[in-house]
Design brief:
Length: about 140
């Protein structure tokens, strides 16, 4: 069974940022993000996008082990500019397991619905300058 937990504490956020290092260990195509950049992205006092964005990071667990992660971002400025109400998702990494990916996306979709969003788009970060794509 997969359990989803919001990454709120500093310890959880470190786990969120470090998960891909273990998941893609040995993969020659994986280039890790710079940790300091990831930390700054997650901090409301360091990332100016938080003036117009809400974000939540989620970790998927199975038997006490992290098996996936995802972040949802509501960018109110972009939504106002485009006349839409979209939730973006980013930093999507998970083991090869349908239950895990379904649980991750269902969690972000549920949050998006709570906020009145009409669709999800991604992978997209806080802005067009953020890393985009998946391995």
């Amino acid at each position: 069974m997969v359990t989803i937990k919001e990454a709120v504490t500093k310890k959880d956020l470190v786990k969120f940022m470090e998960f891909p290092l273990e998941l893609y260990k040995g993969n020659p195509y994986y280039v890790p993000d710079i940790l300091a950049s990831q930390v700054a992205d997650m901090q409301k006092d360091k990332n100016p996008a938080f003036a117009f964005c809400q974000a939540k990071a989620f970790l998927a667990y199975r038997d006490g082990e992290i098996v996936g992660r995802i972040q949802g971002i509501l960018n109110t400025r972009a939504n106002e500019n485009f006349g839409k109400k979209y939730m973006c998702f980013t930093q999507v990494d998970f083991i090869d397991d349908d239950e895990v990916v379904d649980a991750l996306f269902d969690t972000v979709e549920s949050w998006a619905r709570e906020l009145g969003c009409e669709a999800m788009h991604g992978p997209l970060g806080f802005s067009d300058m953020d890393r985009e794509g998946m391995l």
